[in-house]
Amino acid sequence: MIPDLSPLPVHLVRSAVARTLEEDLGLSGDITSQACLPAGARARVVMATRKAGIVSGTQLAIEAFRQMDPEATVTVLKEDGEAIAARDVILTVEGNARAVLSAERTALNFMGRMCGIATLTAAYVAAVKHTRARILDTRKTTPGLRAFEKYAVLCGGGVNHRFGLFDAILIKDNHVGVAGGIKPALKRAKTHAGSTVKIEIEVDRLSQLDEVLEEGADIVLLDNMGPDLLAEAVKRVAGRIVTEASGGVTLESVRAIAETGVDYISSGALTHSAPVLDIGLDIAIL
Fold first, then answer.
1. pTM recorded for the entire structure
2. Which position among 50, 172, 235, 240 bears the catalytic label?
3. What is the CATH number of domain 126-272?
4. Are 245 and 263 in contact, with CB atoms under 8 Å apart?
5. What is the CATH number of domain 10-121+274-285?
6. Does 204 qualify as catalytic in the annotation?
7. For the chain, what are the domain ranges?
8. Which end of the chain is more exposed for a tag (fewer CB within 10 A), N or C?
9. Buried b vs exposed e over 200-234: b needs ≥16 C-beta within 10 Å?
10. What is the pLDDT tens value at each position of the chain, 286 positions in all?
11. Which of 63, 82, 223, 244 is catalytic?
């Protein structure tokens, strides 16, 4: 099933693509295409995947081609969130040949990165589909690309954790240390937070979990606990607050973690370690 996705904010897409094209074109533009291709030559591009995966990033690819050639005709054949097989065509573009080739690497870089994240996320989701657990991303994203990488997680069937430091309170071990303990940290957070702001706190021992249950929170992050300890933690929580497992989660370990009964599993690997999906571009001069 293709996830129900909202488009990425247009201003973020435009500015990210413009910066990336500027980085590639420099002050002189694509001197190879200028040297080899007549100014009026046209081309048709077929963007296809060389491996199976999940589509993500078509909006950025389209923007790259249209920033170089506003009159380019783009036809999307595979939507974001859709599963694709090797050699499936994702989209086609017809336009000025110099412009199309100048946009090629920017389009492929965005799509390869985002499809890779979506594909890895889908593998995590499939591994836990027999459980209640949902797969979350983290803030371990490429600087400047967080919106796109978190969108790619959605394309793969995952769920977004907080977007940044501004939209939820997550009390980590360092906050607890400076605040003077679990309960003082939670008390201060409750005083500060508005009624719509969720409070989550990280624990790595059952004794800390007991303190959280006494003081109260919306979510408890069970950090770096093995499956047996996680199962005991879930048992103690008994549905009173939402549970999240995190810390060193891999595709190999996520199934056992999910089977402990946790509500969510967060993994930084979704964004910091996803391999790029191999996508190619074939072009024929018209």
1. 0.96
2. 172
3. 3.20.20.70
4. no
5. 3.90.1170.20
6. no
7. 10-121+274-285, 126-272
8. N
9. bbbbeeeebbebbeebebebbbbbebeeebbbebb
10. 788 899 999 999 999 999 999 999 999 999 999 999 999 999 999 999 999 999 999 999 999 999 999 999 999 999 999 999 999 999 999 999 999 999 999 999 999 999 999 999 999 999 999 999 999 999 999 999 999 999 999 999 999 999 999 999 999 999 999 999 999 999 999 999 877 899 999 999 999 999 999 999 999 999 999 999 999 999 999 999 999 999 999 999 999 999 999 999 999 999 999 999 999 999 876 6
11. 223
